[in-house]
């Protein structure tokens, strides 16, 4: 195979390229669309059910009408410890990884301009609020091991599948080798893992490197970053019966994934001994949305709330790089790398609608419940507009996959608070509905929470514990034959948080 090469693979380390990025797919669309339990410790302690509750700074990211209920100005901040655990299962191998971090999932300020009770007027003033909410924590680490049998294809066959699907020829693979690598199959060609053969009629096709015996596979994936929303909102009250509000949200996102995939062969029948694929990308960007809401209090003991949020329009940029190494027992390790690249694009996440009800039990506490509708199949990628204001159709296949993979889902949550003098005790339960249309597993995420607090004249302190559990599946590559490895992943995130508040 090495006769086909014009320069050594190390030449690729000196050459740049302007290919497209690799991180925009249906998985990324769901990552930025699906949100966890958010809010202050008080709200997270009741499972996040706050659409009808109001009078909490974190209302701005759920139902800004809650700002109209504030009678005094208020500041709060919420530090937290998040503990993330991931367990992988494949062909009898079970491995666990943990990753923990300290964060601030909520902080905010409300400036109240409410009229005094002795002042006339149906409208009771206008309150202004600003808040910061952590929507998602991307920190995760997972690791799996697998051993294939002698007849099962692996990632080398995947490289060949990709090359044949794209109609790659010897000339264009050699050109990529010469001018700089810009594809996964180019990297495989540069490390001698695939070659080009001819049919009797002269038609070229790509073949994988011949290997014998079982193949050991392993992969380590490290993810980090977060998704946060800064809100500025206003809320008002009409006769203390109807509360209205609106908020503008600016969402920032920073996500990094580093993966190292390895295969090893121990047969003496071939020169191949192993390969390593390193893939790293970082996605950064910001988006904007608008939320409006209302809370109606027909009687003092009942509150009914509703809110809608526009799609969030993101502008994102990916920085990425991949390298492939292959080792043989008859020579040095071969390597091929893509120079770091960058790609900018847009993502629009789905519209969201919330409804809720809260029932107060005199001075003894309350019960509250929320329901949310979100259509995950509605997320859409698009290219950045050019100088003439038009964009291409690069993402048409990805957007079709999003529509085929996901569906609408109903998210719901329940919470309760008991009161005794200045003391509070809370519990909650939340379900993030299955977003997958035809998956072979249940993608539901369930969260259980407990909380407690104390309320004084000017100060308050709340604590909450939230445990979220869900399952997903992962494959490092997809084969036309359907014989790719499938890793079952159990994910758990436990959060312990405090909220310290001051009224003035």
Describe the structure in your own words.
The N terminus is likely disordered. Helix 3 packs across helix 5. Strand 9 and strand 10 form a beta hairpin. The longest helix is centred in the N-terminal third of the chain and has 11 residues. The protein has six helices and 21 strands. The protein has a 14-stranded antiparallel barrel. By secondary structure, it is mainly β. The chain starts with 25 loop residues before the first helix and ends with a strand. It has one domain: Porin (Beta Barrel), CATH 2.40.160. Helices cover 10% and strands 55% of the residues.
Q: CATH top level?
A: Mainly Beta
**Distance between the first and last residues' Cα:** 76 Å
Number of strands: 21
Biggest sheet descriptor? 14 strands, antiparallel, barrel
Percentage of residues in strands: over 45%
Low-confidence stretches: 1-21
Radius of gyration: 27 Å
User: What is the spatial order of strands in the main beta sheet?
Assistant: 1-2-3-7-8-9-10-14-15-17-18-19-20-21
CATH superfamily: Outer membrane protein transport protein (OMPP1/FadL/TodX)
Write the SSE topology.
Blueprint: H1 26-33, H2 41-45, E1 74-90, E2 93-111, E3 123-137, E4 140-147, H3 155-165, H4 170-179, H5 184-190, E5 194-198, E6 204-208, E7 215-238, E8 242-265, E9 272-299, E10 302-309, E11 313-328, E12 331-337, E13 341-348, E14 352-360, E15 365-375, E16 380-383, H6 396-405, E17 408-420, E18 423-432, E19 445-455, E20 459-474, E21 487-503
Antiparallel strand pairs: 1-2, 1-21, 2-3, 3-7, 4-7, 5-6, 7-8, 8-9, 9-10, 9-11, 10-14, 11-12, 11-13, 13-16, 14-15, 15-17, 17-18, 18-19, 19-20, 20-21
Helix pairs in contact: 3-5, 4-5
């Amino acid at each position: 195979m090495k006769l086909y090469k014009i320069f050594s693979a190390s030449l690729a380390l000196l050459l740049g390229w302007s290919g497209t990025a690799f991180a925009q797919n249906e998985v990324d669309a769901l990552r930025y669309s699906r949100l966890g339990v958010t809010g202050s410790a008080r709200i997270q302690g009741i499972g996040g059910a706050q659409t009808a509750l109001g009078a909490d700074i974190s209302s701005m990211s759920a139902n800004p009408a809650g700002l109209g209920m504030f009678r005094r100005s208020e500041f709060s901040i919420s530090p937290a410890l998040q503990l993330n655990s991931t367990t992988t299962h494949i062909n009898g191998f079970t491995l666990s990884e943990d990753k923990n971090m300290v964060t601030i999932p909520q902080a905010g300020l409300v400036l109240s301009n409410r009229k005094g009770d002795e002042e006339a007027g149906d409208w009771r003033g206008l309150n202004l609020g600003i808040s910061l909410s952590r929507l998602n924590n991307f920190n995760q680490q997972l690791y799996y091991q697998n051993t294939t049998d002698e007849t099962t294809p692996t990632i080398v066959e995947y490289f060949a599948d990709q090359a044949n699907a794209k109609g790659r020829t010897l000339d264009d693979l050699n050109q990529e080798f010469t001018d700089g690598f810009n594809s996964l199959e180019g990297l495989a060609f540069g490390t001698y893992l695939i070659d080009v053969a001819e049919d009797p009629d002269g038609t070229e096709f790509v073949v994988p490197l011949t290997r014998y015996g079982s193949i050991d596979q392993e992969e380590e994936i490290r993810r980090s970053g977060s998704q946060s929303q800064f809100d500025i909102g206003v809320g008002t009250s009409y006769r203390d019966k109807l509360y209205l509000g609106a908020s503008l949200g600016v969402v920032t996102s920073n996500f990094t994934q580093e993966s190292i995939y390895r295969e090893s062969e121990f047969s003496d029948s071939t020169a191949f001994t192993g390969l390593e694929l390193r893939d790293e990308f970082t996605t950064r960007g910001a988006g904007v949305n608008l939320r409006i809401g209302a809370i109606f209090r027909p009687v003092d003991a009942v509150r009914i709330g509703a809110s809608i949020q526009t799609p969030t329009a993101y502008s994102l940029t990916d920085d990425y790089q991949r390298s492939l190494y292959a080792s043989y027992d008859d020579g040095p390790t071969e390597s091929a790398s893509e120079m770091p690249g960058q790609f900018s694009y847009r993502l629009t996440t789905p519209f969201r609608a919330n409804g809720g009800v809260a029932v107060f039990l005199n001075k003894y506490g309350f019960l509250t419940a929320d329901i949310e509708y979100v259509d995950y199949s509605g997320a859409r990628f698009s290219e950045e507009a050019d100088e003439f204001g038009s964009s291409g159709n690069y993402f048409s296949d990805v957007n079709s996959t999003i529509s085929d993979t996901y569906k609408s889902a109903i998210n719901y949550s329940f919470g309760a608070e008991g009161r005794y003098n200045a003391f509070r005790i809370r519990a909650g339960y939340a379900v993030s509905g299955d977003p997958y249309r035809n998956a072979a597993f249940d993608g539901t995420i369930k969260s259980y929470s407990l909380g407690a607090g104390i309320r004084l004249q000017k100060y308050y302190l709340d604590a909450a514990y939230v445990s979220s559990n869900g399952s997903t599946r992962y494959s490092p590559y997809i084969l036309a034959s359907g014989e790719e490895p499938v890793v079952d992943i159990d994910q758990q995130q436990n959060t312990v948080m405090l909220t310290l508040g001051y009224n003035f």
